[in-house]
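Entry under discussion copied across for reference:
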Amino acid sequence: MAKKILIGIGIVLGVILLAAAGLIGWLTVTEYRPDAVEEVEIWDARYKGPSLAPGDSLTILSQNTGYAGLGKDADFFMDGGTGVNPTRDQVNTNLKGIVRQLLDHGADVYFLQEVDSNSSRSGSMNQCVDYRDSLYFEGGDPSLDYYSAYALNYSCDFVPFPWPPIGKVHSGVQTLSQFNMDEAERIALPCPFSWPVSTANLKRCLLVSYVNLEGTDKELVLVNLHLEAYDDGEGKAAQTKVLLDLLTAEYEKGNYVIAGGDFNQTFPGALDAFPIQDPSLWTPGVLEEDILPEGWQFACDLTVPSCRLLNHPYDPNPAGNQFYVIDGFILSPNVELNSVETLDEQFQYTDHNPVSLQVTLLDGQ
């Protein structure tokens, strides 16, 4: 009898190992492997947008939308919670709420992160189309429309963890602009994860969009980013270096450069404003002031948190939450900062508050 039991256990273990090997093999074959630089399709606006020239001002709003699945009632297993995938009703409610926030805080340009295009966690909806169409059809101004560029930074037909598994994920970053984006590129960032973890993990990128400036051969370079979150810190550092190299190269061409999004790193002074309460939970990297070349600047708001930890649902008592300032911007010397404000939306529809930036492109620079 004991021998038969051991044989049975061996057969079960063999089947499990064979299935695991098959899954890893399939993930390896189908792994998303983008080129270092890829051209990104731009969806033209229905109406020609306004022109932009040196001397003009513009507003940009950055928002990590959390695939419309990380509202005030959400927690997430990677942050110390237990949640995995939201319900379809939760996604629909959050998406409508995020759209309303975008409209209420209207901007010339939107940098959106964690926008799903076909994921199990968000009911396979194409959110990049939803955001673009909603801004047009619900904006109340039929002549106001946005050009759109979208780049994947997570593409896997089956993410096998945790349990129940996340499943299919196709997600990325989206830039929406009233100004005509003449071209856009996906710039690959270093991936800190090795095989086999890399097969079902994010492939981070920069979404770089170019706007021709009227009366000059210079361009406004818009860089939408979402840097590494759950690494040991080396990935964030390597990706930040690629980012800064790109920004300085574009500025040296005479261009105006604005980078923004979710850095997953705190800005200078942010830890004083929102200290880490429990270092055993997720802790962001730190952006040091001296990493920027002379004349460059960070633009962030240290008075309102831009992100909350998802170890439990949002607590109306501020002391019950771990907050961070990890969303903001980097500006080249020829871009003047007029204002930057994190809009306190109480994390109603996503785990990030939107950050609004107003700048002026300095003439004669």
